C-alpha cells in the first residue's frame, strides 16, 4: 500500500516504513539506542532527501523512547537524577546543532556532509562493536589481558562539584554527564540519531554506571532531547514530514516493547554481534552511494 509524503514529495510503501520503525524500536529496547543511526540511512537508500530523513527520524526517536522508558520503568531501571543532567546538556547541544545545520543548509552541502559523517560514524562504531563482540564470544583473542575496570574514569574522578546519583550508585561531578548530553544533542540535530550509541558505552566505561539503569536512563535523555530537536527542525528547517514520522512511530512504539523483553532472553554478545554487522553493512552501502551514485554534490536550496 503506497502513501504520499507531502514534504518528501514522493510515494512510499507504508508497510515497509512501519516495518523499519518496528526494527528500530526493537533495537531501542534492546540496546537503549534511538535507532536513528539506522533509520536515516535506510530512508536515504529509499530515495528520501537526507534533510527530510534526518528531521523526520528525530520524531520517531521520541515515540520509541516513550515506549522504551515505560518498559524499563516497570523494572526500576531508570536513574531520573542522572537523566535530568543529561537532558540539560542535550537541550543545549540541540540548539548548537540547529545552528550548524542551518549553516550547512545555507551552503548547500548538508546532504553531502550528512552522508560523509554517517560513513565515518557507522564504520568506526561498527568496527569497534564487532571486535568487542568477537572477543566476548571467544572467537578472537584480546590484544592484552583485561584489567579490572575502575568504578569510573580518572578524568571523571578529577572533575569538581560532585553529586550523589543514588540509583546509579555514583558520587561524581555532574559536568561529565552534562558534556555527554551536549554531544548527544548536537548529533541528534545534525544526523537524526538519538546519541545512545555514544552515551550508553560512555555511561558504562566513563561514568561507571550500573548496567541495570544505563539503558533506561539513556532513553529518558533521548526522549526529551528528540522532542526538543523535532520542535527545532519544525521551526527552522521545515523538513519534518508528519506522514513519514507517523508511519515510523506506529512501528517503533510496538517494537520497543518487544525489544525490552528480548533483552532479558537473548545473550547480549550475540545481539551485539548482529548489530555490529548491520551497522557495518549500512556504512559500506552509504560509502558506495557517496562514491558512485551522487550526480550533484550540492543540494538545492530554496531562497
TrEMBL record:
<keyword id="KW-1133">Transmembrane helix</keyword>
<feature type="transmembrane region" description="Helical">
    <location>
        <begin position="83"/>
        <end position="104"/>
    </location>
</feature>
<feature type="transmembrane region" description="Helical">
    <location>
        <begin position="213"/>
        <end position="232"/>
    </location>
</feature>
<dbReference type="GO" id="GO:0005886">
    <property type="term" value="C:plasma membrane"/>
</dbReference>
<dbReference type="Pfam" id="PF01925">
    <property type="entry name" value="TauE"/>
</dbReference>
<feature type="transmembrane region" description="Helical">
    <location>
        <begin position="12"/>
        <end position="38"/>
    </location>
</feature>
<comment type="similarity">
    <text>Belongs to the 4-toluene sulfonate uptake permease (TSUP) (TC 2.A.102) family.</text>
</comment>
<keyword id="KW-1003">Cell membrane</keyword>
<feature type="transmembrane region" description="Helical">
    <location>
        <begin position="44"/>
        <end position="71"/>
    </location>
</feature>
<dbReference type="InterPro" id="IPR051598">
    <property type="entry name" value="TSUP/Inactive_protease-like"/>
</dbReference>
<feature type="transmembrane region" description="Helical">
    <location>
        <begin position="238"/>
        <end position="258"/>
    </location>
</feature>
<feature type="transmembrane region" description="Helical">
    <location>
        <begin position="186"/>
        <end position="206"/>
    </location>
</feature>
<feature type="transmembrane region" description="Helical">
    <location>
        <begin position="270"/>
        <end position="292"/>
    </location>
</feature>
<feature type="transmembrane region" description="Helical">
    <location>
        <begin position="116"/>
        <end position="140"/>
    </location>
</feature>
<protein>
    <recommendedName>
        <fullName>Probable membrane transporter protein</fullName>
    </recommendedName>
</protein>
<keyword id="KW-0812">Transmembrane</keyword>
<dbReference type="InterPro" id="IPR002781">
    <property type="entry name" value="TM_pro_TauE-like"/>
</dbReference>
<keyword id="KW-0472">Membrane</keyword>
Amino acid at each position: 500500500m503506497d502513501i504520499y509524503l507531502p514534504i518528501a514529495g514522493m510515494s512510499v510503501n507504508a508497510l515497509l516504513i512501519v516495518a523499519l520503525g518496528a526494527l528500530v524500536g526493537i533495537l531501542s529496547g534492546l540496546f537503549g539506542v534511538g535507532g536513528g543511526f539506522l533509520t536515516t540511512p535506510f530512508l536515504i537508500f529509499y530515495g528520501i532527501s537526507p534533510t527530510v530523513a534526518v528531521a523526520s527520524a528525530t520524531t520517531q526517536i521520541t515515540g520509541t523512547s516513550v515506549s522504551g522508558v515505560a518498559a524499563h520503568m516497570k523494572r526500576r531501571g531508570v536513574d531520573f537524577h542522572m537523566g535530568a543532567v543529561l537532558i540539560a546538556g542535550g537541550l543545549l547541544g540541540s540548539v548548537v546543532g540547529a545552528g550548524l545545520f542551518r549553516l550547512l543548509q545555507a551552503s548547500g552541502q548538508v546532504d553531502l556532509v550528512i552522508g560523509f559523517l554517517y560513513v565515518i560514524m557507522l564504520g568506526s562504531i561498527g568496527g569497534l562493536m564487532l571486535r568487542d563482540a568477537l572477543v566476548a564470544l571467544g572467537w578472537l583473542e584480546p590484544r592484552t589481558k583485561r584489567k579490572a575496570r575502575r568504578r569510573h574514569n580518572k578524568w571523571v574522578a578529577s572533575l569538581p562539584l560532585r553529586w550523589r546519583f543514588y540509583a546509579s550508585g555514583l558520587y561524581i561531578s555532574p559536568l561529565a554527564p552534562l558534556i555527554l548530553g551536549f554531544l548527544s544533542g548536537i548529533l541528534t540535530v545534525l544526523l537524526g540519531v538519538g546519541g545512545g550509541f555514544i552515551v550508553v558505552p560512555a555511561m558504562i566505561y566513563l561514568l561507571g554506571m550500573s548496567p541495570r539503569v544505563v539503558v533506561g536512563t539513556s532513553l529518558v535523555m533521548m526522549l526529551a532531547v528528540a522532542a526538543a530537536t523535532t520542535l527545532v527542525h519544525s521551526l527552522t528547517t521545515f523538513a519534518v514530514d508528519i506522514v513519514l514520522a507517523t508511519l515510523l512511530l506506529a512501528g517503533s512504539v510496538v517494537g520497543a516493547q518487544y525489544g525490552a523483553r528480548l533483552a532479558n532472553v537473548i545473550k547480549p554478545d550475540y545481539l551485539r554481534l548482529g548489530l555490529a554487522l548491520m551497522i557495518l553493512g549500512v556504512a559500506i552501502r552509504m560509502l558506495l552511494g557517496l562514491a558512485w551514485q551522487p550526480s550533484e554534490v550540492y543540494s538545492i536550496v530554496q531562497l
